[in-house]
Design brief:
The structure is a single chain. The chain contains 8 helices and 4 strands.
Length: 226
């Protein structure tokens, strides 16, 4: 049985289908049937009218944003409602959002697993070619490696890269929150404490899953430029 928070993403290819509800009702029913019987909360339903051939889908981006903010799982009626493009599904994986297809609940792990196997095979092939090239270079008398004094510099670069990744993650999280903060301000929130209360009221937690404080809100505002 389903449990937890979910954001439903429904997609149709034409404006006519969107206006008539053709296809949407079937998708909505599939999602409802999948969730039925468990302890779950549907945060919201997001509907997109867009061709599946395009990857720049703003409504899907919004659904992913809401999933990240609420710690929710993206639920779709059919796997092909997202895309048949493996590259796109990898992008979904990089978004850090769990997803499940009502018609194939195991697809989440299955699809990501297949892609992981492919990526691993590619890495092994690259590694094998690299080793072969190094061995050939060594046979030609090329000196491999270098002084060990480079190691501290390499460690420093690795630490800097790790910090950069963490910083980028925090910035992306702040960008996800920008719209909600703007809406809360439009509703009358003036102080940092007002904004913290408003985010808690919307069911949005901090990146660590805790309640908001004025300090945490201030850090977000600094990252998005106030």
């Amino acid at each position: 049985m389903a449990g937890g928070r979910f954001v439903s993403y429904l997609r149709v290819s034409t404006a006519k289908q969107g206006a008539s509800g053709l296809g949407l009702e079937a998708q909505r029913k599939a999602v409802t049937d999948f969730l039925n019987g468990g302890r779950w909360t549907l945060v919201t339903e997001v509907v997109e009218i867009e061709s599946g051939k395009r990857a720049d889908r703003p409504k899907l981006a919004e659904a992913l944003r809401l999933c990240r903010l609420h710690g929710a799982t993206l639920v779709i009626a059919k796997l092909d409602r997202l895309s048949r493009d493996a590259h796109f599904l990898l992008g979904l994986q990089r978004a850090g959002v769990r997803f499940v297809a009502a018609d194939m609940p195991e697809a989440n792990e299955m699809v990501v697993g297949i892609m992981a196997v492919v990526a691993q095979a590619e890495r092994k092939m690259i590694s094998a070619r690299t080793k072969a090239a190094l061995a050939a270079a060594k046979e030609r008398g090329v000196k491999l490696g270098g002084p060990t004094h480079h190691l501290p510099a390499q460690a420093g670069r690795a630490a800097a890269a790790s910090a950069s990744v963490r910083s980028a993650g925090a910035r992306h999280r702040a960008e996800d929150l920008a719209r909600d903060i703007a809406e809360l301000r439009a509703e009358g929130a003036r102080s940092l404490r007002d904004l913290a209360t408003g985010l808690d009221r919307r069911g949005i937690t901090t990146a660590r899953g805790s309640a908001w404080t004025a300090t945490a809100v201030r850090r977000v505002l600094e990252r998005i430029g106030g």
